[in-house]
Write a structure and sequence with these properties.
Blueprint (H helix, E strand, L loop, with lengths): L6 H20 L10 H4 L8 E4 L5 E6 L5 E8 L13 H16 L5 E4 L5 E7 L3 H13 L5 H16 L5 H10 L11 H6 L2 H11 L5 E7 L3 H12 L21 E7 L15 E10 L8 H18 L7 E4 L7 E9 L4 H17 L4 H20 L1 H13 L4 H5 L1 H7 L2 H11 L6 E6 H6 L1 H5 L3 E5 L5 E2 L9 H12 L2 H5 L3 E12 L2 E12 L3 E8 L4 E7 L4 E7 L2 E2 L3 E2 L2 H11 L13 E8 L2 E7 L5 E7 L5 E10 L2 E15 L2 E11 L2 E11 L13
Parallel strand pairs: 2-6, 7-11, 7-12
Antiparallel strand pairs: 1-2, 3-5, 3-6, 4-5, 8-10, 8-11, 9-10, 12-13, 14-15, 14-27, 15-16, 16-17, 17-18, 18-19, 18-20, 21-22, 22-23, 23-24, 24-25, 25-26, 26-27
Helix pairs in contact: 3-4, 3-5, 3-8, 4-9, 10-11, 10-16, 11-16, 12-13
């Protein structure tokens, strides 16, 4: 009975699809279309030159002799997408501290800003100050330091900014599309910022501070040769390290539901985006969307813009309707937002949105609608090309999303080639009228709207921090009584105590991305807290291994023939491994550092929260009839990001006097693994088996 992370399997298959998509995009015939008056008015796309150091550091230059100042953008492959669970805002805070230190070292004529997601610093400075700015930046990145006074100052500034931000409809919409474990679905709140420590910020610095994970974008009156010399002097001695893998999630299966975030009544009006008098809530429809390098992306944006115009002409003016596509680096989704008052019939409003979405799927838009979008899109693109800061942002976003310079240059021609049929095809592929809705507002408004919300599907309520408000019935037994009955259900005290080792062989089938991959998991456990586990999926060349000797835990992963080095788990992940190592984990939670609390009874299960002082948390569900474990749920920080894992135990059988689960279903993100297990009990296992190879 142990949990298993299958993120590596899913990410490997996702990577294959991304490569196929990129190949398709590169093959797109950009040169087949004649220039229109709109495209002829565009400024020429600039020449982009590259500087690359041996340590992996890259610089991209747009030389412009007309500029009298230099604009720099230092982009890290990190940002909020890498925030650890419970440490939301740590990367943004680290980069804000770095930006402040850079500002203090430079003249007052230099302006420094940080990107919204905390992944980039932009500087605008005199050309003569460039060399010193690069040296200062390099010194701070190679030896990052945190002064408690500066940390508190920046944290307070960020907390004020976060607290004044309008309603978080985008994080909630991301949660509907990708699940609440995705980093963009989790909120940075003042309370969470205040809890971040020096160690948390140092950890964030470590994740971003490496040359092979950093790109410098530069525009101004400077040559490639001069920039190369300055970059080599400043960054040439910076030692490279293994860069973090940044996941690109896939949308979850469609679900008709309502996700309601309740704000205090006195807080809701001031936090409403586009609020008008009398509105006390905001609602949003969450839609799947293609990645930025997908061939359907431009057509999807066109469909979204047309949808917004149609809804604005249909809904009342005070609805403040907005339809947009997120610009997050590692996950895309569409969102349709509008204001809502206590008197607004929610069900009627959402049916209006559903009808508009269905119409654009059923009927191709007009050429006039497409021309309007194209004109506005080209105006924005022109502004970006003419602004140094925006140009560097465009280049950075293109790099992040695997978009080539050739594709950027062909943007106008692709817009010119858009047809009504292509826009309709993109809408059919991604618009899902029945997908979940987000409702955010004060408790009074949401209470009045309960009947309407029920007409939209199951309702799940959340706090302003994004934590689910779970309704539990009062348990009719205590935690001690529950665990006693659980032990009896397993076979009794004598039977469970007699099991000293357990070998589990699980034949698995992973379902991911409409494909099925057979595999095998062999798990060996030894009381009290030793485990070795090996997952093999031949079709995807996946080999995933775990060793835990009762004190330390190590992982090793091989994917597509590429072997990742053996890695020791951190303290929190070691706690999770020690829990997994328990043969009967519910009976031995306390011995491996978990304090348990019986939350109550819900959906025929007793729900127990088990948590360590470090914040490692697992939620255990016990069948209220059999008292056997029915599920274990947890969030884990992995190299692939935060992963929610739900392990369901669906069937049990008796082996040498104890009941053990024979059918296990593991749900991790968009993947589902079904396993059938057999057991060997009290086979001799030498302690050397559980020690990781040197």
């Amino acid at each position: 009975m142990n949990t298993l992370c299958i993120s590596a399997v899913i990410n490997a298959t996702e990577r294959t699809v991304l490569v196929m998509l990129l190949f398709a995009i590169l093959s797109f015939p950009n040169t087949l279309f004649a220039q229109s008056p709109e495209t002829r008015s565009l400024p020429a796309f600039p020449v982009v030159e590259e500087v690359r150091l041996k340590n992996g550091f890259r610089g991209l230059l747009v030389a412009d002799k007309k500029q009298d100042r230099i604009t720099l953008r230092v982009q890290f492959g990190s940002g909020t997408a890498l925030d650890a669970f419970g440490k939301e805002g740590s990367h943004a805070l680290a980069v804000h501290i770095l930006a402040g230190q850079v500002q203090m070292r430079l003249s007052t004529r230099t302006t420094v800003s940080v990107s919204a997601d905390g992944s980039a610093i932009t500087l605008n400075l005199r050309t003569t100050a460039l060399a010193q700015a690069l040296v200062n930046m390099a010194e701070l990145l190679m030896k990052p330091s945190i002064e408690t006074a500066n940390l508190n100052l920046v944290r307070n500034v960020m907390a004020y900014t976060v607290d004044s931000v309008m309603l978080p409809t985008e994080p909630m919409a991301s949660a509907v599309v990708y699940g609440f474990e995705h980093p963009y679905s989790r909120l940075t709140t003042p309370e969470r910022l205040k809890k971040l420590t020096d160690a948390d910020i140092q950890s964030a610095f470590k994740a971003l501070s490496m040359p092979n994970n950093t790109t410098l974008y530069c525009t101004g009156n400077i040559t490639k040769k001069s920039l190369a010399a300055l970059v080599n002097t400043a960054f040439g001695k910076w030692q490279s390290r293994e860069a973090p893998y940044l996941p690109r999630p896939r949308a979850l299966p469609q679900e008709n539901a309502v996700y309601a975030m309740e704000l205090p009544a006195d807080e809701a009006p001031m936090r409403l985006k586009g609020n008008t008098k009398g509105n006390t809530a905001r609602i949003a429809s969450a839609l799947d969307a293609p990645m930025r390098n997908d061939m359907d992306y431009d057509a999807y944006c066109t469909a979204t813009s047309i949808l917004e115009k149609r809804l604005q002409s249909t809904l009342p003016a005070d609805a403040g309707c907005r339809a947009a596509v997120s610009r997050h680096k590692y996950g895309n989704f569409g969102v349709i937002e509008q204001n809502l008052s206590a008197q607004t019939p929610l069900l009627e409003r959402m049916n209006t949105v559903r009808k508009a979405v269905s119409t654009i799927m059923e009927t191709a838009p007009s050429l006039d609608e497409i021309k309007l979008f194209r004109r506005q899109a080209l105006e924005r693109f022109t502004d970006q090309l003419r602004s140094p800061e925006r140009l560097l942002m465009v280049l950075a976003e293109a790099e992040t999303n695997n978009i080539t310079l050739k594709e950027l240059r062909g943007y106008a021609k692709r817009l010119q080639a858009l047809t009504p049929e292509a826009v309709q095809t993109a809408a059919k592929r991604y618009f899902q009228p029945e997908r979940g809705f987000v409702v955010i507002g004060d408790s009074a408004t949401l209470s009045l709207q309960t009947t309407s919300m029920q007409g939209l599907g199951q309702i799940t309520r959340y706090t302003p921090d994004g934590e689910p408000i779970l309704a539990f019935d009062t348990a009719d037994i205590t935690l001690a009584e529950l665990l006693t009955r659980h032990q009896e259900a397993l076979g009794g005290t004598t039977a469970t105590a007699s099991v000293s080792t357990l070998i589990t062989t699980t034949q698995t089938q992973l379902s991911a991305m409409a494909q099925k991959f057979p595999g095998t998991i062999v798990t060996k456990q030894k009381h009290p807290g030793k485990i070795v586990r090996k997952l093999e999926i031949a079709a995807t060349q996946i080999l995933q291994e775990l060793w835990c000797d009762g004190q330390n835990a190590f992982d090793k992963i091989e994917m597509m023939g590429q072997e990742q080095p053996l890695k020791q788990r951190d303290a929190k992940e070691t706690e999770s491994a020690l829990f997994d190592a328990q043969i009967f984990p519910a009976l031995t939670m306390k011995s491996c550092g978990f304090q348990a609390e019986l939350l109550g009874k819900r959906n025929g299960n007793y729900v127990v929260k088990a948590e360590t002082t470090n914040g490692t948390r697992k939620t255990l569900s016990f069948d209220a009839t059999t008292y056997l474990l029915s599920a274990i749920e947890e969030f884990r920080q992995t190299p692939q990001g935060i992963i929610k894992s739900v392990q369901e135990f669906r069937e049990y059988a008796v082996f040498q006097g104890v009941k053990l689960p024979t059918t296990i279903v593991l749900k991790t993100g968009p993947g589902v693994l079904i396993g059938k297990s057999t057991y060997e009990i009290n086979v001799f296992l030498n302690d050397e088996v559980f020690r990781a190879p040197k």
